[in-house]
Amino acid sequence: xxxxxxxxxxxxxxxxxxxxxxxxxxxxxxxxxxxxxxxxxxxxxxxxxxxxxxxxxxxxxxxxxxxxxxxxxxxxxxxxxxxxxxxxxxxxxxxxxxxxxxxxxxxxxxxxxxxxxxxxxxxxxxxxxxxxxxxxxxxxxxxxxxxxxxxxxxxxxxxxxxxxxxxxxxxxxxxxxxxxxxxxxxxxxxxxxxxxxxxxxxxxxxxxxxxxxxxxxxxxxxxxxxxxxxxxxxxxxxxxxxxxxxxxxxxxxxxxxxxxxxxxxxxxxxxxxxx
Length: 275
Description:
Layout: H1 3-27, E1 33-34, H2 36-45, E2 56-60, H3 61-74, E3 79-82, E4 95-99, E5 103-105, E6 120-128, H4 133-151, H5 159-168, H6 176-187, E7 198-199, E8 219-224, E9 227-232, H7 235-243, E10 263-265, H8 270-273
Parallel strand pairs: 2-6
Antiparallel strand pairs: 1-2, 3-4, 4-6, 5-10, 6-7, 8-9
Helix pairs in contact: 4-5, 4-6
């Protein structure tokens, strides 16, 4: 299979997972939207960005938490919800929906992780940004702490965040979950404030990227690979905040398969391949 054939096969599997998420969300009145490269691809290309290979979705925190609770009850068999709550080895602060009996191994280190390694769709929860001043600075530090104790390694940030990370990494690993949960609580402290902006702090950079308070207030549909999916009505503002002039194509040298796996299989789980 050529690399282009592999990308297209990954796209087909991801669209299958996306269809499942769409159905579960719409049947249970949960808000979601295409986001980041997936939303950009829908707007600029009518589908996947030709050199992109993943699907990104966003949800308001309250709907996201409901999805986590009901997934195993309402989703069809073969689609696995995965995050740091379901798998302690999972080192991200968002959720992946993986298709069973597939493999998408991105890094050599993943071989030694105990979690499912199938082809996936990413779902990022949106929280409310603290209303300015010291509260916002404390929330930003909490984001750094949450990322640090979820991933287990520093972000590479400079200044006070870098100092805090180096200090905290010296604490016993047994405290990681406790500190991560405390940080999560502080991050979510303003989720009842509908006048506060949204953010999606899955990286230290995105923790400083803020979106309008009414981000999920109105939704519409957008065409993606020939099907209609849910989309925030403020898609232009979202993409400008995320990418700036998003309609400008990157240089050809940057149009590469960014998540190219070291092992991929469309019929078997990783464990089945290594038996």
